[in-house]
């Protein structure tokens, strides 16, 4: 059976004064899919993601996130998604446990749920001994793994990851991706941006944005075949070089 | 004489509870005209190291010289000789492109015209925006302006702290092309990066992790000292494949690597046994190839030793 579409977009557009940041993008993401959302700096990825998260109203076009409309049902969207970025994810001056408790509370989870899930999460990440330490004192890689687990703590249907592994060491980067695979196996849809082209290979499908448009969308294998390339890096360079829009 | 000579350099940070060794007895030499890479993730100590070498931070142990000058005793001499581009954009946001450049030239008692040949290739790319305030530039443009400002006094040694972090693959490639051209001008360049694949673009590299240098050498020499039988493996279902590889006694290590998984076999195992094992786990479309390790493979092995 074909999996249902959890994200649908049709001609989704965002214009700022005289500038089309996102130009009529149309694509679907299936439930449980790991979807890589690539593009050069300034291609429009962040603007597109903000619309999909219900944080920015589109200028035109349509989109639904887990069945909710991006114009009218933004509160419903926020409940059904998780979000994590490289820049901000956790409160540094709260402990590991306090951060989890905080996010659980924000999403209206019961104390019993939070307690049980916290124990599971600490065990899964093997950080039981760090539970009462300030997040500031953790190594970056641990922070990022914790941030991901917190982002899916409320069992969202989709999690948006904005360059989650920047600057992370290669071993931890892979541990991070194992967490992504596990979440995906549980049916959580993963929507991820990255500058690491080897990570593009870990996605089921990848889209590449150029000048506000989606120029290519396929499996990594399909993209490499289409662009007669041996690596995703090569595919990306071929497409991104076509950009005419100045990186503004 | 080496352009940069570092001997057991150490930097400690004290917090209320603990003492953190940001840089721990680090030693290496950089020859004149070399493009030398410090490769390591966040927290490796790259920035602390660069700040000591540019006299912005005092070491807690060890010594170092830059172009023959001591980093503790000859502070003024070093500041005249080095160019430094910090990881965080540090130019004056409310001065224009041109004003920033003039400012840094004047500070160093020189003029933009005097050294224009050195920055010309880079500057022409931002020239159309020369009356724009630096704070209003895009990431790529800021980076180019910062490089121009770091070069405008014609430094002997150039320090670039993570110039390509957060930059897309196209701009990264352009930036490395610029560095190659600077190298032709006989400027010694030290560049730090968390991107392992950029190691291959350096003459020599130091791999760094949590304050220590794991290995130093040319990318080729580091790779050739990697004594393991490494294979790439692929199958229809990649995540279950990885789980099965991790559970197998024959694999000393296994991890995902782009399109394939990398597997390092234990000494007494061979590729035939690997294939038999994967068949027994009912994987379909199994592909196994021998492969050359790259710097990232080496880094991961060194990290775990």
Automatic annotation (TrEMBL), chain A:
Pfam families: ABC_tran. Gene3D superfamilies: P-loop containing nucleotide triphosphate hydrolases. It comes from the Bacteria. Residues 7-236 form the ABC transporter domain. Transmembrane segments: none annotated. SUPFAM superfamilies: P-loop containing nucleoside triphosphate hydrolases (SSF52540). Signal peptide: none annotated. InterPro entries: AAA+_ATPase, ABC_transporter-like_ATP-bd, P-loop_NTPase. Keywords: ATP-binding, Nucleotide-binding. GO terms for molecular function: ATP binding; ATP hydrolysis activity. The keyword ATP-binding applies. This is ABC transporter domain-containing protein. It comes from Segetibacter aerophilus.
Automatic annotation (TrEMBL), chain B:
Keywords: ATP-binding, Nodulation, Nucleotide-binding, Transport. The keyword Hydrolase does not apply. Gene3D superfamilies: P-loop containing nucleotide triphosphate hydrolases. One of its GO terms (molecular function) is ATP hydrolysis activity. It comes from the Bacteria. SMART domains: AAA. Residues 4-235 form the ABC transporter domain. The keyword ATP-binding applies. Belongs to the ABC transporter superfamily. PANTHER family: ABC TRANSPORTER ATP-BINDING PROTEIN, ABC TRANSPORTER ATP-BINDING PROTEIN NATA. This is ABC transporter domain-containing protein. It comes from Segetibacter aerophilus.
